[in-house]
TrEMBL record:
Domain of life: Eukaryota
Protein name: Uncharacterized protein
Gene Ontology cellular component terms for the protein in this record: plasma membrane
GO molecular function terms listed in the Swiss-Prot or TrEMBL record: ATPase-coupled intramembrane lipid transporter activity
Organism: Micromonas pusilla
GO biological process: phospholipid translocation
SUPFAM superfamilies in alphabetical order: Calcium ATPase, transduction domain A
């Protein structure tokens, strides 16, 4: 559930489920590492958008069976995602993985770029893909969905 997620958590989303947070995809049930999302709740478009799993060393981006959380946690241990501050731009995301395979933190290991093609946004729905596994980057009011929501103005009538 979205209220239980924290930045850095691993999240598993199954087919026809709505994304509970903004998530960087690290693995998909699709052998090519692709997941498809419908973004009608975000931008009104009903066509599916392809999102790609990041090529994390030691992790198969596409896997037919359910993900192995132990393998994912071990591969991501010590790694961090450095990314832009929360914003409302749906089609922009810049970041990078730092410290992949470093076993001790962000000062060693590989770096890997993360783009909007790797990010699944809160409010979008996973379609035609059994599941994706990803790392939460924004939650709550920091998600792009919430940054794009506006309060409706109060209506006041004169008597």
């Amino acid at each position: 559930r979205w209220k239980d997620l924290r930045v850095g958590d691993l999240a598993l989303v199954r087919n026809n489920q709505e994304l509970p947070a903004d998530v960087v995809c690290v693995q998909s049930s699709d052998r090519a590492g692709v997941g498809f999302v419908e973004t009608a709740n975000l931008d009104g478009e009903t066509n599916l958008k392809a999102k790609r799993a990041c090529a994390i060393p030691g992790v198969a981006s596409g896997r037919g069976s359910d993900p192995d959380a132990g393998i994912l946690e071990k591969a991501l241990e010590g790694a961090v995602i450095q990314c832009e501050a929360p914003n409302n731009q749906l089609y922009k995301f810049e970041g990078k993985w730092v410290g992949l395979g470093a076993d001790g933190g962000a000062d060693g290991g590989a770096e890997l770029g993360v783009s909007v093609d790797n990010v699944l946004l809160r409010g979008s729905t996973l379609r035609n893909t059994d599941w994706i596994a990803g790392v939460v980057v924004f939650t709550g009011g920091d998600t792009k969905l919430m940054r794009n929501s506006v309060r409706s103005p109060r209506k006041v009538s004169s008597l």
